[in-house]
Predict the 3D structure of the following.
Amino acid sequence: MVDFDLKLAYCCCFDLRTGGLVIGYFQLTLWALDFLLKVSGLTFGSFLVYGLLFGVHGCWVYGVHTESTSFMVPGVIFEMICYALILLALAIIPILGLTLGEKIHELIPDKEQAASAANLGAALFYVLFISFALGAALQWLFTAVKYSLYKQMKEEEADQSNARPSANDKF
């Protein structure tokens, strides 16, 4: 099993539990607003995706409130998958930018127009890359807080179960 040695003690100025709840409610609110803005044009598959997202984030919030780590697992896994996808996008964006720059020079015969279009394309890719980099930083924070809180609560569960006397213990 891979053990990430990532453990935060705080989320901004709050303890991990409060930070985990703020992140969970923030994500639920964003997905709810997104759903309400797009509800008229959604397909059945989109409803399933939104249902999955509400379920994952709802389980996270419920798990934190009830201190049940089993409900928190989908949220941790979801955040790690999202972080990996953002990192993958960060790796692909420069490759796409270079490929598009070469194609622009091939498609536009006029050298001056091609250079102008290539510069505009490069600027757009820089903006896209910076946007994804900021998203990756925010996603890292969400992932780190959720994983750290999960790990902390799991350790507390283990400490509590070790502290309880079992039925076989003799006094």
Remarks:
- The beta strands are 10-11, 14-15.
- The chain has a mean pLDDT of 83.
- The chain has one domain: 15-159.
